[in-house]
Amino acid sequence: MENLLELRNEIDAIDKEIVGLFQKRMKISSEVAEYKISTGKKVFDRAREEEKIRAVTELADNDFNRHGIEELFQQIMSMSRKLQYQLLAQNGVVGRLPFIAVEEIEKSRVRVVFQGVEGAYSEAAMKAFFQDDITSFHVEHWRDAMEAIAEGSADFAVLPIENSTAGSVSDMYDLLMEFENYIVGEQVIRCQHNLLGLPDAELSDIKTVYSHSQALSQCKEYLGTHRDWKQIPMVNTAMAAKKVKEDGDKTQAAIASAYAGEKFGLKVLADKIYDNEANSTRFIIVTNQRIFRWDAKKISISFEVPHTSGSLYNILSHFIYNNLNMTKIESRPIPGRNWEYRFFIDFEGNLNDGGVKNALRGIREEANNMRILGNY
Ligand SMILES: O=C(O)C(=O)C[C@]1(C(=O)O)C=C[C@@H](O)C=C1
C-alpha cells in the first residue's frame, strides 16, 4: 500500500493540473465575454449550460462521480458567468437601472396615507418619519393605501412590514408584488401594547379582547394568564380601541397603544402587556416613483427561481461573490403555482455601487421576474 505522503503528492499534482485548466478555461470565458460585449448577447445561456452538464456527466464512470461532476461544472460555469458580468461592467455594458437618485425624500408638505384609524401605530410611524406640515388621511385596508399611491391620490404610504416578535407581515409582500410601488424609507416604532377598557371597566369585567392578530400574538404570555377571554382579531389595533369605545360594553377590551387609548377615551387596565420588551414594528414608506436617496443603504428585491435543486443557492452566490451582506430573506407562494415560491431579499448597498449593479445584473439574468422593490 502506498503511504499517505505519496498519495498526497499525487493529489497535489492533479490539483495543480486542475488549477491550470481552470485558469485556462476562465481565460477563454473572458474571450467569450468580449464576443458578447460586441454582439450584445446575454451572459447566461441556459440551454448551453444544460447541454454542457449532460455531456460532462455522461463521461463519468459511476453515479457518485456523475453527481460530483454535475455540481463541479455548475460551480465552474457560475464562476465563468460572474467573470463575464464583471467584464461587461468594466466595459460599460451595464444597463442603467431605472431608478433616480435624489438628495432627499420629501418629508414636508406631502400627502401621506396610512392604514387604520387615528391612533394607529402606522400614524405614529408617519409622525416619526415625516414633518408636521404634511396632509394625511387614513384608509381601512393596506390595499387601499397601495391603491392611493398607485393612482396618485397620496404621495406616500406608511405600511407595516415586520414585527420583531411576530415576524413578517406576509400580506405586505404580496401587495408589493401586485402594485408597482417602491420602498423609499423605513421607520421602526416600539409597540408598547396596553390593555384598554371603558373608563368604568375593571380587569375582572373583561370577557372579550379585540386587537390586530399580530398584537394578540405579541401578548401571548399575558393572554395566557386570561384563558377565558375570547380573542377577536381586527384589521388594526386602533380600530379595536375604537370598537370598544363605540360598543360601550364594559366586558370588552382592546390591545393597543396608550396613544390610541387617549384618542378614544379608554382606560389602561394593564400596561406593557407585550412578551418582549423590545417589541417593535418596522414600517416601510412607499411611493409610486422609482427614486432612492443618494446615500441609501438597504436594497429590497424579489425574484422567482426554477423549481430545481440548487437554484436558490446559485442566485445567492451573487451576494457572496460581490461581497454584499444579506440582511433578510422571505418567501411567499406564487399564486396559481402550487409549491413554487417567490423570494424577497434585503441586502446592504446602494444602487450606484459597482458590486450591487453586478449582483443585480446576474440575478436578473439567472432568476425569473426579478424586481427591485426599493433602495432606502
Ligand atoms: O458558452 C458561453 O456562452 C459561455 O459564456 C461559457 C459558459 C461556460 O462557462 O461554459 C458560461 C456562461 C454561459 O451561461 C454558458 C457557458
TrEMBL record:
Alphabetical list of InterPro entries matching this protein: ACT-like_dom_sf (IPR045865), ACT_dom (IPR002912), Chor_mutase/pphenate_deHydtase (IPR008242), Chorismate_II_sf (IPR036263), CM_dom_sf (IPR036979), CM_II_prokaryot (IPR002701), Preph_deHydtase (IPR001086), Preph_deHydtase_CS (IPR018528)
ACT domain segment(s): 300-376
Residues annotated for substrate binding in this entry: R8, R25, K36, D45, E49, S80, Q90
Transmembrane stretches, start-end: none
Keyword terms of this UniProt record: Amino-acid biosynthesis, Aromatic amino acid biosynthesis, Cytoplasm, Isomerase, Lyase, Multifunctional enzyme, Phenylalanine biosynthesis
Record bears the keyword Lyase: yes
One GO MF term: prephenate dehydratase activity
Class of the enzyme per the UniProt entry, highest EC level: lyase
Catalytic activity: prephenate + H(+) = 3-phenylpyruvate + CO2 + H2O; chorismate = prephenate
Site features described as Essential for prephenate dehydratase activity, chain residue numbers: T281
Matching Gene3D superfamilies: 3.30.70.260, Chorismate mutase, Periplasmic binding protein-like II
GO CC, one annotated term: cytoplasm
Entry EC no(s): 4.2.1.51
Pathway connected to this protein: Amino-acid biosynthesis; L-phenylalanine biosynthesis; phenylpyruvate from prephenate: step 1/1; Metabolic intermediate biosynthesis; prephenate biosynthesis; prephenate from chorismate: step 1/1
Annotated Chorismate mutase domain residues: 1-88
NCBIfam families noted in UniProt: PRK11898.1 (NF008865)
Name of the protein in question: Bifunctional chorismate mutase/prephenate dehydratase
Source organism of this protein record: Fusicatenibacter faecihominis
Gene field: pheA
